[in-house]
Specification:
The complex is a heterodimer of chains A (163) and B (829). With 163 residues, chain A is mostly helical. Chain A has helices spanning 3-28, 33-59, 74-86, 93-124, 128-161. The longest helix of chain A is centred in the C-terminal third of the chain and has 34 residues, at 128-161. Chain A is elongated and about 55 Å long. Chain B has 26 helices and 29 strands. Chain B is globular, with a radius of gyration of 25 Å. In chain B, 64% of the residues are buried. Chain B is of the alpha/beta class and 829 residues long. The mean pLDDT of chain B is 96. The longest helix of chain B is centred in the N-terminal third of the chain and has 19 residues, at 116-134. A 7-stranded mixed beta sheet of chain B has the order 7-6-18-17-16-8-9, with helices on both faces. In chain B, strands 1-29-2-5-4-3 form a 6-stranded antiparallel beta sheet. A 6-stranded mixed beta sheet of chain B has the order 24-26-25-28-23-27. The chains are: A mainly alpha (163), B alpha/beta (829). The interface between A and B is medium-sized, with 29 and 32 residues.
């Protein structure tokens, strides 16, 4: 396995994880309406990245899996949503929300670095397909990071000062 | 033109046709209460309407200390003497017997009368307790789009520099925050580029989700007059309902709910494909064209036709209409702002104007409209999610400048994050971190989405709620303290309409009982809280409307909304004047951006912008690299599917909206007999196709239910697009005998029982037009029609299905043609 295949695999795993985590966070924070809706939309981006990564890998005879579904684990998803509704009047889930947003941010940052590595390798090997893939997907990864960063910035003052 | 007409039956009155580039003739509309002879009027007091964002200039007739009627001001360029139905009849609500006349406080679970001192002491002492125990973040203020400039400014100073809270927003969040955000995204700064006068010169007028006939009826009269004159304009209407605009349109598109970005991207695609571009304008005044062109490259008319469920050929016709004219005016309102991807869609309309160079000259303009009458003041004074004077919270020098105006340390003004938007404030209250909410001049228990949630937030024991209003509204009934406010005609102040025209509205009569102007209430609170500046002097140094206006002028100096050239005396002399009005433009400014983009420079701009799809804030570094010279920004956005799509359980899309006879939660319009009787109760609109398929008919009582809640209404079968239901918003419960919400014997009535809690990530405007719903028959009609008016978009599909809406003699209004007294065609050049 060469380095590019390795990077494709790593990114594929990273984007799968991020898609899954975004959906999980959306469900866990159903009563944080903006987080719920935007995280759901952003999970769509990562799912598309997974699809495109699998497509490009297939051209190199590497089989990577499909993206996760929109709701990965039915019963647990329902439990997460119910749990968030049960604590709708409690302040503590705010802390959990900040932790979740932070982890999404770190996961997206990791993906971002891998996209960077892939783009660099693609340039060096003059591989236009890989470069096209990285330049199509990387900006959206950066936007995912910017979103989590904005949410943490906007929510921290109130959540941390009111506990 | 006849001299008297029933303006309920004919909301837009008679016609005064005029040709393109001519002056809109004046016509003076006068309505006096029945039995009042014109000679009995003792005084005419100058004012302007606060029942929609037109700001129609009018005089209030006074006899024996009472309001007895109104008359349009022919000297004013906004309405040239005309008045809409809400202007003509709405004032009567002021004299309703159920006005609040004394403060109320909750004791043992019930609201009981008390005196001002007791009520205000309670508010001040609770504020101090919370400040001591939990800090300024525990107090929030939620205001209106119907107070006066002086009141918003005073509230902004006391909330931001007095309390030091970041939680201050207006209900303009529900109607106009997307207009502001779209202007900031494109031009770096809020402020309407165009002027209503552009309607006189336009060749094509595109109305996106803007039922102007019902929301701004006087400007619709202007369009009707032009349609009957020489060289009439052609209209493009984007609306799923058969509005009056749609009936007069050259091209009418009725897209599926939530697909505006797809449609607009296709219009941009077609415009670029046919090279209908002003390349000189693009290169001189914009950045981002290449990226925009690339992002819409695949957005063909066929692609959008599938998503929007509109024939591709119609989209191409629409693109040709807006792409080939030499003078295009576009207006945008709630069909865009309250729908999915609100800001992204509104920005694409800006883009269309920029790439066609349709900006800054007569007949080439852009009106990102307002829904609320004084929304512009809420925005410019910083009583919404911005700092006063369109200052940028992310720019330390702007904050320092504001701190200098207020004579406080910059740290005193919260600017670590964007000012909290209303929907987030309610979330903080729900979670318990906001413990006091002061609601002035608005009625969230009817106007916010998902009402059962809002009621559960407002009725929490730990939340101390202050409500300041004219009546015991649905919200006031849930409050801990209710403060009786004076209103329009009972107090003096300035107000600014959607095209930046500032009017003065003077006190005509005394308020009832002990009711007080909102300004006096805020000033009283500031005194009790003893807010100080950094030298120990009082933070708020003014004590009446005129001194508050002078204080605001100092805050606005040098900013885009510069008021320094205005005085109360000048506004009395000349009627409406458009800001900026300063030394350089003493007569005001008809159009912004006549010589290029002026406020988008990184050092000047109000905002560094946001990601249109995620709402993520941009930082100054990115902004500088994107737009170092401060040009207009062409920002692309991809279409995303709506968050709720019809399914088996909820097969319909549901949209809500305002109609010509009612305004914000009907607090006033529901108490004006002619307006109340024209549309007395909620109704449900359905398409002929869907009604036939389901075996339902006019007048059937149905239940509209969503995942959030349900309402009952009688069915009106219209030409609305199939698959869509429409419910007029803001029918509440105060006139149902059940108080503040549905009860065991009172089914849901408010549209917002059903709407989803979801908002545009960039503008934070709640989405009232993207829910899904089910429809079930409750009871067959007994042959009587639904209470929907027949004169408007809710007209029945088959003529004769309902008795025509009329007001009869009680609605007779004089309309007299008059010369427009100004020698020139426009207020300012």
């Amino acid at each position: 396995m060469n380095g590019i295949t390795l990077t494709l695999r790593t990114l594929h795993r990273g984007e799968r994880h991020l898609a899954h985590d975004l959906v999980t966070v959306a469900e866990r924070h159903r009563t944080e309406h903006e987080v719920h809706h935007v995280a759901t939309d952003l999970a769509g981006w990562s799912r598309e990245h997974v699809r495109r990564l699998a497509e490009v890998a297939a051209h190199r005879d590497v089989r990577l899996g499909d993206p996760p579904g929109t709701s990965p684990d039915g019963l647990f998803a329902t439990l997460r949503e119910k749990a968030s509704e049960a604590v709708v009047h409690r302040p503590e889930p705010g802390l959990l929300l900040l932790r979740d947003l932070r982890e999404l941010h770190v996961a997206a940052a990791e993906n971002s670095l891998h996209w960077e590595m892939l783009a660099q390798a693609a340039q060096a090997s003059r591989n236009s397909e890989l470069l096209g893939l990285a330049s199509a997907c990387h900006p959206r990864t950066l936007r995912q990071m910017r979103w989590t960063n904005t949410m943490v910035k906007n929510l921290s003052p109130q959540i941390l000062n009111s506990l | 033109m006849e001299e008297a007409t029933d303006r309920i039956a004919r909301p837009w009155g008679g016609r005064t046709p005029y040709g393109r580039h001519e002056t809109w003739p004046a016509r003076v509309d006068t309505f006096l209460a029945q039995g009042v002879d014109p000679s009995a009027v003792q005084r005419w007091v100058q004012s302007a309407s606060i029942l929609h964002s037109d700001g129609d200039a009018m005089d209030i007739a006074v006899a024996d200390g009472r309001m007895v009627g109104v008359r349009g001001r022919d000297v004013d360029r906004v309405n040239r003497g005309r008045l809409g139905p809400k202007d003509l009849y709405g004032w009567q609500a002021n004299a309703s017997r159920d006005r609040l006349t004394r403060p109320l406080v909750r004791r043992d679970g019930r609201l009981v009368e008390t005196d001002w001192d007791t009520a205000m002491d309670l508010v001040a002492s609770r504020s101090r307790e919370l400040l001591d125990e939990r800090g300024p973040g525990s107090i929030g203020f939620y205001t209106s789009g119907q107070l006066f400039l002086e009141e918003y400014y005073t509230l902004a100073v006391l909330a931001r520099a007095g309390i030091g809270t970041n939680h201050l927003d207006g209900n303009t969040r529900l109607c106009t925050s997307t207009a502001a955000e779209a202007l900031k995204e494109t031009f770096g700064c809020d402020g309407q580029p165009g002027s209503y006068d552009d309607f006189d010169h336009a060749d094509v007028i595109a109305l996106y989700g803007h039922n102007i006939a019902e929301t701004q009826p006087v400007q619709w009269m202007r369009l009707l007059d032009r349609l009957e004159g020489a060289d009439p304009p052609r209209l493009l209407c984007v609306d799923p309902r058969p509005t009056k605009v749609a009936r007069h349109a050259t091209v009418h598109l009725a897209p599926r709910g939530g697909t505006n970005v797809a449609l607009l991207n296709a219009l941009l695609h077609e415009t670029i494909r046919h090279d209908r571009l002003d390349r000189d304008f693009i290169s001189a005044h914009t950045v981002g064209f290449e990226e925009l062109a690339e992002r819409v490259a695949g957005c063909t008319a066929e692609w959008a036709a599938d998503i929007c469920d509109v024939p591709a050929a119609r989209i191409e016709e629409a693109a040709e209409l807006v792409g080939t004219t030499d003078a295009l005016v576009s207006t945008v309102l709630q069909g865009v702002y309250q729908s999915h991807q609100a800001t992204a869609a509104a920005v694409q309309i800006n883009n269309l104007h920029l790439i066609r160079g349709m900006l800054g000259r007569p007949g080439a303009g852009l009106l990102q409209m307002n829904g609320q009458p004084t929304a512009q003041n809420t925005r410019e004074c910083g009583a919404n999610g911005d700092l006063p004077g369109f200052r940028n919270w992310q720019n330390d020098s702007h904050v320092a400048d504001l701190a200098k105006v207020w004579n406080v340390e910059p740290e005193r003004i919260p600017h670590y994050a964007p000012p909290t938007h209303a929907m987030q404030m309610y979330r903080y209250a729900e979670q318990g971190s906001i413990r006091m909410l002061w609601i002035s001049g608005t009625n969230p228990a009817v106007s916010l989405p998902e009402l059962s949630r809002i009621r559960s937030i407002l009725t929490q024991k730990r939340l101390f709620t202050v409500v300041q209003d004219l009546f015991l509204t649905e919200t006031a009934q849930l409050a801990d303290v209710v403060l009786p406010a004076a209103t329009w005609g009972e107090k003096t102040g300035a107000l600014t309409n959607a095209d930046r025209t500032v009017h003065l509205s003077e006190k005509a009569v005394e308020p009832p009982g002990e009711a007080k102007p909102d300004l006096d209430i805020f000033l009283d609170y500031a005194r009790r809280m003893d807010f100080r500046d950094k030298d120990g002097g009082p933070l708020i140094t003014w004590d009446d409307p005129e001194s508050a206006f002078e204080a605001w002028k100092r805050c606005s100096a040098g900013r885009p909304c510069d008021y320094t050239g205005l005085t109360y005396a000048k506004l009395r002399d000349t009627s409406g004047i458009q800001w900026p009005c300063d030394e350089d433009a003493p007569e005001g400014t008809a159009r912004l951006y006549t010589d290029g983009i002026s406020w988008a420079h990184p050092d000047l701009c109000e905002s560094y912008g946001k990601d249109l799809e995620t709402g993520a804030s941009q930082e100054v570094v990115e902004y500088r690299s994107l737009n170092p010279d401060g040009k207009a920004m062409l920002k692309a956005a991809a279409y995303l599917p709506p968050h709720e799509e019809p399914d088996e359980e909820y097969p319909f899309q549901l949209t809500t909206g305002r109609t010509v006879y009612h305004f914000h939660t009907r607090t006033k319009t529901g108490r004006a007999p002619q307006l109340r009787d024209a549309a007395p109760d909620v109704w449900v609109e359905i398409s002929t196709e869907d009604a036939d398929r389901l075996g339902l008919a006019e007048g059937d009582l149905v239940e509209v239910a969503s995942r959030r809640g349900a309402l009952h209404g009688r069915l009106r079968v219209t030409g609305i697009r199939p698959g869509l239901l429409f419910v007029p918003f803001h029918y509440g419960y105060w006139d149902t005998g059940n108080g503040s919400g549905p009860g065991p014997d009172t089914p849901g009535r408010a549209a917002n029982e059903t709407t989803v809690t979801d908002w545009d990530p960039a503008s934070k405007q709640p989405l009232f037009k993207t829910s899904t719903a089910s429809l079930t028959l409750v009871e067959r009609g007994d042959g009587s029609p639904s209470p929907a008016p027949t004169t408007t978009a809710s007209a029945p599909a088959s003529a004769g299905a309902a008795r025509p809406t009329e007001g009869g003699e009680a609605a007779y209004t004089a309309q007299v043609p008059a010369p427009f007294p100004h020698g020139r065609e426009e207020g300012a050049q």
